[in-house]
Design goal:
The strands form three sheets. Strands 3, 4, 5, 6, 7, 14 and 15 form a seven-stranded mixed beta sheet that branches. The chain is globular, with a radius of gyration of 20 Å. It is of the alpha/beta class and about 350 residues long. The protein contains eleven helices and 15 strands.
């Protein structure tokens, strides 16, 4: 396959509003020996993308400044070192630290996964960043165990829908907070045992009652992306010797209401985490463990990619608006090539 020198990508006039994004022409990325070049068919949209657009979440040093953390497509070129693992023509889904909003993306060979049988390009584009983020938080950091009580905030988000399904797969009981009654029904359909609309008022009492049904003094694991607004409430509903994993801070980064005495009293393990800035060796090991433990569940139907909206790349402004209006129930995926 002939590879062009130029490609279309979502570019930025400057940091800021959604309409600063436009479809423009830029260089096709140069591939390293340990990388593959992927012709992108579809890419996922993540909350972090909206932050990068605003200038609040810059890419790690040396990474493309094009937005985008996950994509699916076809390998069209393979570096010398990467030839031990990959070949041209393979259909793959990829985790990247940047560059996903483009017709071509260069990816380290360890951050590439073969698309599971029966999964479309659109569905595959919604797996890497979303599911690996949830898997990392619940499994590697949260040490989720069978019969754990798990509280997942923002359950209808892309990561939230993945986390609910993964927690169910690992044998946990799940509660979640969402912003509409429609999202309550949807999260229960995915496997949540309890779902609460936070817009109807404080949810601490309801969540405490849920944990008491299982004769526990609180949740064994809290997996959350809210930050400031939920610091106090999380401390009220977390159990003894529990884990509290923070992967984003949508309401702010301040923790003024964090009580160190409560942390000590309940022996809480509090951990913040990101995936994007992790070294490639970490991501390679994460991908391998994900493939070993989870990937077959997409084939047997125990896990599914929840696609909310699919738009062509030219509609990227609409996609960011939809996400920032908190309307999502699952993933937003943009298409570059329409696969039948």
């Amino acid at each position: 396959m002939s590879i062009p020198t130029k490609m279309k990508a979502v570019l930025l006039k400057s940091f800021g509003e959604r309409d600063n994004m436009y479809i423009g022409e830029t260089d096709v990325p140069k591939m390293k020996d340990d990388e593959v070049l992927v012709k992108v068919h579809a890419f996922g949209v993540n909350r972090a993308d909206t932050m990068q657009r605003k200038g609040e979440y810059p890419p790690p040093p040396g990474v493309s400044d094009i937005i985008g953390l996950e994509a699916s497509g076809e390998i069209v070129d393979v570096g010398n070192e990467a030839k031990q693992k990959w070949k041209n023509g393979e259909h793959v889904m990829v985790l990247v630290a940047g560059g996903g909003y483009a017709e071509y993306v260069a990816v380290n060979m360890g951050a590439v996964m073969k698309i599971p049988e029966g999964i479309s390009m659109v569905e595959a584009a919604g797996i890497p960043e979303t599911y690996l983020t949830a898997f990392q938080g619940l499994r590697l950091i949260g040490n989720i165990k069978k019969h754990d009580l798990v509280l997942i905030h923002a359950g209808a988000s892309g990561v939230g829908t993945a986390a609910i399904q993964l927690a169910k797969l690992f044998g946990a009981k799940i509660a979640t907070t969402v912003g509409t009654n429609e999202k309550i029904a949807y999260c229960k359909k995915l496997g949540a045992d309890k779902a609460v609309n936070y817009k109807h008022g404080p949810w601490v009492g309801t969540m405490k009652e849920f944990t008491q049904e299982f004769n526990k003094d609180g949740f064994d694991l809290i997996y959350e992306s809210i930050g400031t607004d939920y610091v106090e409430a999380n401390q009220e509903v977390i159990g003894t010797d529990a884990r509290w994993v923070i992967y984003s801070t949508q309401s702010g980064t301040k923790a003024d209401k964090l009580s160190l005495s409560q942390l000590m009293k309940k022996r809480t393990t509090l951990c913040g985490t990101v995936l994007r800035a992790r070294p490639i060796d970490y991501k390679t090991n994460l991908v391998k463990q994900f493939e070993d433990e989870v990937i077959s569940s997409f084939v047997n139907g125990k896990l599914k990619v929840v696609i909310d909206k699919t738009w062509p790349m030219e509609k990227i402004i609409d996609a960011h608006k939809y996400m920032e209006d908190n309307l999502t129930m699952g993933k937003i995926v943009m298409t570059i090539i329409n696969d039948k």
